[in-house]
Write a structure and sequence with these properties.
With about 240 residues, the protein is an alpha/beta fold. The chain contains seven helices and nine strands. The chain starts with 5 loop residues before the first strand and ends with a strand.
Length: about 240
């Protein structure tokens, strides 16, 4: 990736074969020759976060290993970053679409598909809260923006994400985005590392008609894996 230092690692996914993942070397990586970061309103500190591996993403990927693949089911990952969970689903034959608002996420996904010998996978631009897919119209002209696969559209039977509740969302943008793309029987799976915005988000989901079940995902440190504290939030509308 021009302008960036990257690394390539074999990432262990509990219950599945390892994934070879190319990621940013560290969170100091920032190269924005076309001004995408400024146009999209993403700070230089936040810009590289999509390209790092996060513990909650690994937790979600591990859960998707054991979840049965259901015929005809459509899956959407929100804020996919390096898309570990989507890669697991894709390798298992599920109909999955990865999405993110970052202009580089699609390029990294395509590279990691190649590294793992996988066929191409669906990728869409997924952003909530702005009302515009990629910011102002001029943002659509940059080479990075052109890498997006268009906005998320349609309904999905499983919408999943990890560590999405890191910012206060007073306008309930995420809950409304999920509501627009959730089929009537959809489940919403979000792995959350005990962020302080969890309770407010659950109230926003309740306003959209979703009930909640929670499951603790706490794990003690083992070998090279650090300890993890968090929970799986499962939202679903009551079924008639």
């Amino acid at each position: 990736m021009p302008g960036y230092l990257t690394k390539q690692e074999s990432i262990a996914i509990a219950g599945a074969d390892n994934l070879i993942i190319r990621s940013l070397l560290d969170r100091q990586q920032f190269s924005d020759p076309f001004g995408d970061a400024e146009t999209l309103g993403i700070s230089s500190a936040a810009w590289p976060l999509f390209g790092l591996l996060w513990p909650s993403g690994a937790q979600l990927a591990a859960r998707m290993v054991s979840r049965p693949v259901q015929a005809g089911e459509r899956i959407l990952e929100l804020g996919c970053g390096l898309a570990l969970a989507s890669l697991v689903c894709h390798r298992r034959g599920a109909d999955v679409t990865a999405s993110d608002c970052h202009p580089l996420a699609g390029s990294f996904l395509r590279e990691n598909l190649l590294l793992n010998g996988m066929a191409p996978m669906k990728y869409r631009q997924g952003q909530w809260g702005s009302g515009e897919a990629l910011g102002p119209p001029e943002a659509l002209e940059s080479p990075l923006a052109q890498a997006h696969g268009g906005p998320v559209h349609g309904l999905f039977d499983l919408i999943m994400g990890s560590d999405l509740l890191y910012e206060r969302d007073a306008r309930a943008s995420l809950a409304q985005f999920i509501d627009r793309h959730a089929s009537p029987q959809a489940q919403i799976w979000i792995v959350d590392p005990d962020r302080g915005n969890r309770a407010a988000f659950s109230k926003q989901m309740a306003a959209q008609g979703f009930g909640l079940q929670e499951e603790r995902l706490d794990q003690a440190a083992v070998l090279d894996a650090p300890a993890y504290k968090g929970r799986l939030l499962i939202y679903q509308r009551p079924q008639a």
